[in-house]
Amino acid sequence: MKVAIYPGSFDPVTNGHLDIVTRAARLFDKVVVGVFDTPAKALLFSTRERVDLMREAVAHLTNVEVKTYSTLTVDFARTEKAPVLVRGLRMGSDFEREFEMAMMNKQLAPDVELVCLMARAEYQFLSSTLLKEAVQFGDSSKVENMVSPAVLAALKRKFGPKAAGKN
Ligand code: ADP
């Protein structure tokens, strides 16, 4: 059985992430989404919230599980008995960062292979960070095609009546 992990912060999960999980679920027998507990960036959602939103987003994918982890990503891969780590690549900025991480991961765990799936054209410029700014300062109805209804509702709750009122 070929198992892959798909690690990330998912703060919160977007349709870009969901597209990557969906495609990975077709390539592997099982995909374990790893929600990293303590990324080196400011988070809007707690680990519990990020896991719950991801679980809801992938509920229809029968070979996908969602777990949280706080170890090195390659150690999470080993714990899950996954020889493959999946990442999504958007144009430009993602490549250098992914390359750097891949080199370090190869050093730490030569047995774990990286598989990068190219982000679909419509999600190339979708990031959790920009999404959060759009809802916080803009009009949440404009980002309805970028996230699930549950994620949009969660974002509106975080940013209060101002964001909610604009939709
Ligand atoms: P991290 O903090 O580890 O970069 P993210 O939650 O931002 O985690 O993203 C997880 C993975 O999904 C990364 O491989 C990232 O490049 C990828 N990703 C992020 N946004 C998109 C998108 N719009 N389309 C496809 N892949 C994406």
Quick rundown:
With 167 residues, the protein is of the alpha/beta class.
Write a structural description.
- The chain is an alpha/beta fold and 167 residues long.
- It is globular and about 50 Å long.
- β4 (84-89), α4 (93-108) and β5 (113-118) form a beta-alpha-beta unit.
- The longest helix has 17 residues, at 149-165.
- The model has no long low-confidence stretch (mean pLDDT 93).
- The relative contact order is 0.19.
- The chain has one domain: Rossmann fold.
- The chain is built from 6 helices and 5 strands, in the order βαβαβαβαβαα.
- α5 runs parallel beside α6.
- The protein has helices at residues 15-27, 47-57, 73-79, 93-108, 128-137, 149-165, and strands spanning 3-8, 30-36, 64-69, 84-89, 113-118.
- Bound molecules: adenosine-5'-diphosphate (ADP).
Helices and strands, with pairings:
Elements: E1 3-8, H1 15-27, E2 30-36, H2 47-57, E3 64-69, H3 73-79, E4 84-89, H4 93-108, E5 113-118, H5 128-137, H6 149-165
Parallel strand pairs: 1-2, 1-4, 2-3, 4-5
Helix pairs in contact: 5-6
Q: Which ions, cofactors or small ligands are bound in this entry?
A: adenosine-5'-diphosphate
Name the average pLDDT. 93
Q: Do you know the CATH topology?
A: Rossmann fold
β-strand amount: 15-25%
What general form does the structure show?
globular
Subunit organisation of the chains:
single chain
List SSEs in N-to-C order.
Answer: EHEHEHEHEHH
The whole-angstrom Rg is 16 Å
- CATH architecture assignment: 3-Layer(aba) Sandwich
Q: What structural category arises from helix and sheet content?
A: alpha/beta
Number of helices: 6
Largest sheet: 5 strands, parallel
Total E-strand runs: 5
Give the strand order of the largest sheet, numbering strands 1, 2, ... along the chain: 3-2-1-4-5
End-to-end Cα distance = 45 Å
